[in-house]
Write the structure tokens for this entry.
Amino acid sequence: MEFEEDQQEALDAALDMIINTEADKRAGHIKTEYDASCTANARLYKENKDLQRKLKSITDIKVGSLFGGFKPGDYIYVRYQENIFEPCKKCSGTGNVAAKYAGTDIMAPCPDCKKGSVACGIKIIARRKQISRCSIIAKTAEYSDENHLSAALIMLVNDNYTELPLSDIFRTEEDALKEA
């Protein structure tokens, strides 16, 4: 019986040694892969930081040229059109006209203007605004299936973002009105 126990112990020891050797070998492969992955991640992290730094420096240079030299925080003048109103000829600007209803004189809303004045033209005005953000916007041209990039200034005005093409933005009120 002792002989069988010795053989069993030897067999168990041999199996333990084979299992431990195989586990060590697999753990070594996994550690090698892990080390390689860490090295690659560290290299990629460094490359990413370098690219971010380069992109920021390029962006700082290019943003000015993309947006006509404008940047967030700049005050600009935006050209707007306003209707010019003159008093209505029918009601003399009161919004009401004398009328008869069932033989009684009454004041009725003017059938021409309904408010006392009529638009007679357009006046160009310039309003001062502050740029809150500059963005490059991808748009699809209506006449084409192709996408293209265009530069636009995005302004926060009364809690609403407004997109403005560069052609509608001026550095001075005089410039805004001069080109009208």
Remarks:
- The first strand starts at residue 75 and ends at 87.
- The two ends are 112 Å apart (CA to CA).
- The chain has a mean pLDDT of 77.
- The helical segments are 2-66, 173-178.
